[in-house]
Structures are given as C-alpha cells and as structure tokens.
Amino acid sequence: MLLFFPFLGAEFGVWKMNGVPEDLIVYEIAVVVPKRNLNEENKGYDCVEVLVNEFRNVGLIVERVLGLSDEFIKLAAPLETLGRVAAKMQMKKTTHIGIDLQFEWEDIKAFVRQPDGSLFSWCERFQCYRHLIYEIVNKKNSVVTLKFDGKEIQWEAGESLLQRLELEGIVKQVFPLHDEIKRKKLLRSWALNWWDFTAQPIDEIYAYFGTKIAVYFSFLGMYTRWMIFPATFGLILQLIDFGSLKLLVFPAFFISVVLWAVLFFQFWKRKNSALSARWHLNFSVSTSEGYKLSGREWNSLQPPLELVKNSGIDKTKEKEALQRYEWFGYLKRFRNDVIIILSIICLQLPFELAYAHLYEVLKSDMVKFGLTVVYLLVIQYFTKIGGKISIRLIKHENNENTEYQADSLVYKVFGLYFMQSYIGVFYHALLHRNFMTLRQVLIQRLILYEVLENLVENSLPYLKYSYKKYRAVRNKKKREKGLIGKIQFATRVEKEYLKPTYSASISEELEDGLFDDFLELALQFGMIMMFACAFPLAFAFSALNNIAEMRTDALKLLAMLRRPVPRAAATIGAWLNIFQFLILMSICTNSALLVWLYDQEGKWKLEPGLAAILVMEHVLLLIKFGFSRFVPEEPAWVRAKRMKNATQAQDMCSKQLLRTISGREKAFGGYIRRKKPVGTNKTQ
C-alpha cells in the first residue's frame, strides 16, 4: 500500500530517479486493453496512449505490462493523490474526538487512522481509485477523435474516457490487484494455519478485503466456536442410550439449543457493534440511547432527488408526492413478494412433494441416493431461473440503496432455497412420521450437500482458471505459428486476470460470492435447528464442516480468485433476519417432533406430556423475544465511547456557536457606537 511515499512526479521514471524503490510500489488496480501494434505517427492519437497520459495527469503511478494477448495498465496512488481526491469527493472520516467530518488534506492529522496504521481503508481507497479513473472527462468544448487499430472513436465533450472505451470494447476489464506481501502473510497466518481451529486475524482481513468479508469471517468464527456446546451435547445423546429417559432428555436438548441460538445472535450483535467501533465506521453522533451505523440503518424508500429539490414550493403537493412515492414503493415490493410466493407454491411445491413421495416409495438405498444427486443438480437450474426473475422484479422497486436491493434479492431467493431444502424433510417428518427415514434424509442433505458444495466451490475456480490459461496459450500459438516450446505466463497481473471473480451463483449485479457463503450457513443452520430432536449429531458434523470452511474459504479468496471488490456494509444484512426466522421455525418443528415422539400411537390426546410440550413452545417463543431486552446489543465500552464523543461534539459546537454569536454582537455593537454620535448631533 503506497500511503507513505510523497508524490514526486507523474512519470514512473521520476519516482525511480528520486530514490523510491520500484519493488515497494504496490499497484492496486489493473486496466486491461487488447495488445496491438502501434505506429509512431498514430501514437499521439491512440486512445490507450491518451488514457495512460490522463492517468498520469491525475497523479496516478502507471506501469504497463504486456501479456500473451492483452496489455495490462497497473495503477498505484500516493497518499497525497488519494487524500486530495477524498477531499474532492467530500468523504466523511472519523476524527480523534469521535466526530465524523468531511476530510481535508491540509488537516490530515485530525483524522483517525486504520488499525493497520493506514489513513484510508481499502473500501475508501477503492472509491478514490474509481473516482480518479472514471472522472477523466473531455474538458474541451468540442469532440476529440481518438484512434485504435485504424478505428476512430469520438470522445464527446464532458464524457468519461474510461466509460467510452468500455462501451467500445477497448477496455476489457478494470479489477483490483492482490498485494503479494499482504497476501502471502495472510496465507501463512490464516488460510494455512490449522493449529488454532477458529482463530482468525480479523483486523488484517478487514484491511485487505474490506468490511463485508471481514464481518462474514468474524461471524463464521464466532458461530463455529459457539457450536462446540450443542455439538458436545448432541454427541452425548448419540452415544448414550437413555432408554425411557429420552422423553426428558430430548426436550432438555431442544430447550438448550434454542436458548443457545437466541443467546448467540444477541452476542453476535454485540460483537458486530464492537467491530464497527474498532474499525471507526461512521456513527451518527447522538446522546440518545439509540444509534445508527452507516450502512446498517438506511431508509430503503428514500424519495428521489427531484422530489427533495422541489420540496418547499407547495407543502400540500410536496406531502402528497412524498406519500404517493412511499406507498407506491411498498405496494411494488408487496406485489413482487406475492409473485415470488405464488410461484413457489404453484410451481416449486408440487415438484418438491413429488420428489419426497418418490423417495418414500423407493426401496433401494442406492436408487434413493442417485435420486437425491439428480434432484440437487436439477434444482440448481430452477434456482438460477428464480434468481433472474427476482432481479428483474427488484429493478422495479424503489430501493435507492444498493445494499437494500441486495437484501431484497436475498429474501426472495432464500424463499426458493427454503422450499427446496426443507419441504421434503417436512414431508417425511410430519406426514409419514418415520424417524429412521427422517434421519437418513438429514444425513444425506447435510453430508452430501456440504461435501458436494465444498467440492464444487473449491474445484470450479481452479478448473476455470486452467481452461482460461489453455485458451490463452492456444490463441497465442494460432496467432504466431511456428512457436516452439512451452509458453508460460511471465507476469502476475496476467495470472490474476485469468482467475475467476468472487461472484454469486445467481447474480453478479447486486451480490458477490458472500451470497453463496451465507446461504450455505443459513441452510445448514436451518437443517440442524429445525430437526435438532431427530438428529442431534448434526451439530457435530456442522462444527467440523465450519472449521474446514473457514480455511477453504480463506484459501479460495487468497489463491484461487481475484481480489474481490470491497463492500462497505457493516453487518450481515438480511441474513440476520433469516437466521431469526429459522429460530422461530425450529421452535415449532421441534415441538411437533416431540409431540410425535411422545404420542407414537397417533391419538393426539391432550395428556399432561403433550400439554407440557405446548406450554414449552409458548415459553420458548416468549424467551426468544424477551432475550433481546435482557442482553444489550451494544457493549458498555462502545456505548460509553459513543456518549463521550457525542458530549465532546456538543461542547465544541456550543463553544463555536457562542464565539460566532459573540463576534457578531461585537461587530454590531461597534457599528452602533460609530453611528451614535452622528445620530446624537442630528437629534440636538
């Protein structure tokens, strides 16, 4: 990260002459353009040459690398360049007294640095890079004609050069680059460190990947550590035959796992709040008890800018317009949700029930296993279709914030996954009441799904990378016939370009690969919680899987994929509500399983045992909603720090306001004193 070098010149050669070691410059962004033969007479008009010169003019350090078939323009930025563009963007940063103020380069010492000592986080640096490279516009009043391999390109006045070249297909991609020093350090201390099962360098992950990915791994680590208790309890239940005492032991296990889940998510909210305070994420300063974290609470139905600008002209019309916009937004979202729910009920539900019925009718275990494999493959295509439909529906919603659009997509797509993952299990559990079959289905769903998911998740990126390398070498040999020997990729940037992106399986527009990682955790959590009484050993399987998941996900991000584009969301978003919903579902389903276990004859009489189960269900529901009041979501030190910062901010604002008022009164008083003799003479 090039944050401590002064800006010495636009040309890269100037940097080397002034003593800045070339190997210490960290290039963080790459721009990919086709490789071509450039004539000297066209060099001044070539669009790529113009783009490189413009990059240097805005203060970026440029290095050009030739690959097998493409040219790579690597970009780095000194601290001064980033600081001045951050001030131009009016970026808000936390000061040493806890107030978020607009960044000013001249007052750099007033702002808090990141845990790793840098001034800007990776999310902030990436925003600055995007602003620098996409805000290069034609400042002339006329069209500029550029050339590329004999093709003329019209660069309109006020148009972004990079966007024009992307539309023309000249700029193929713009993507972030790995920092080799930090990447190798994280590989040693995180991805390949198996000695401490759940320990993770969260601050280093935050500094390298950004907020959203760091929050995910923090959640995964805490979730895995907390799972040790139910995993141990479930293992005891599986190994020891309690005989007739199982009617008491299973309810005790059920109560304990529900309390475990409720407590876990309350303490996760506390940890999330502590992480946000430690990383200096933006808080709105207030002395009240509540607070809102930037990215956590945001009005998803913000009025459009035109309505805000036109406000104040006519209060009645303004109110009507805002109310109409608000309620139309809610109605559009409700309409889209109804479409998704009806599609699930009318299309997916019959398919799921047919699979569940066939699984119950078939006798051979091998045929059942094969049917499950085919089912899991076929359902992937159904889910992709549902995801595409959801994205089209979301585009017609009034979601002004990208993270809320992503949350809306999560809710809709999870409905599809919920149906395909659990309806068959419900069929076996509640309709046929076959305990052995239910356990077989759970084992197949948990083990088979997670093993297949991990195999696909970790092998597919490598296969894609190998295929792209093979294609690049084959195309090179076709263009230059007669090449002898093995063709190798000499540059790291070209290898990164060939790696797959960290993208979601349903959509690359609103979600990245975190969607699939969170989805895997949510489906696992629902499976082990909703059928805890039927298969207590599932917690132990899930704990082992999550320990491996932490390392394989880390290895995937550091070695198999490109560096992801950072996301500034400070929480797990919609997934928290989904986990809370699954806890409620688990209370209902496990109560039904206990009723079935108690009333094996199917008489359904309201005897003391059944009555106790019904009472227990209602008590657990009350506990679920009551624990949020007993366990505060914000640690005491975070609350004290926030209150201290708010008090300091109010004191400073009060003093500044008093000085301003006092200064005006003095000026006004002096003006009166100067005027008074004249007025007195006139009176006399």
UniProtKB/TrEMBL annotation:
GO terms for molecular function: chloride channel activity. Residues 205-644 form the Anoctamin transmembrane domain. InterPro entries: Anoctamin (IPR007632), Anoctamin_TM (IPR049452). GO terms for cellular component: membrane. It is a multi-pass membrane protein. The keyword rRNA-binding does not apply. The keyword Protease does not apply. The chain crosses the membrane at residues 213-236, 248-268, 338-357, 369-387, 408-430, 521-547, 568-598, 610-631. It comes from the Eukaryota. It is found in: Membrane. Keywords: Membrane, Transmembrane, Transmembrane helix. This is Anoctamin transmembrane domain-containing protein. It comes from Gossypium barbadense (Sea Island cotton). The lineage of its organism: Eukaryota, Viridiplantae, Streptophyta, Embryophyta, Tracheophyta.
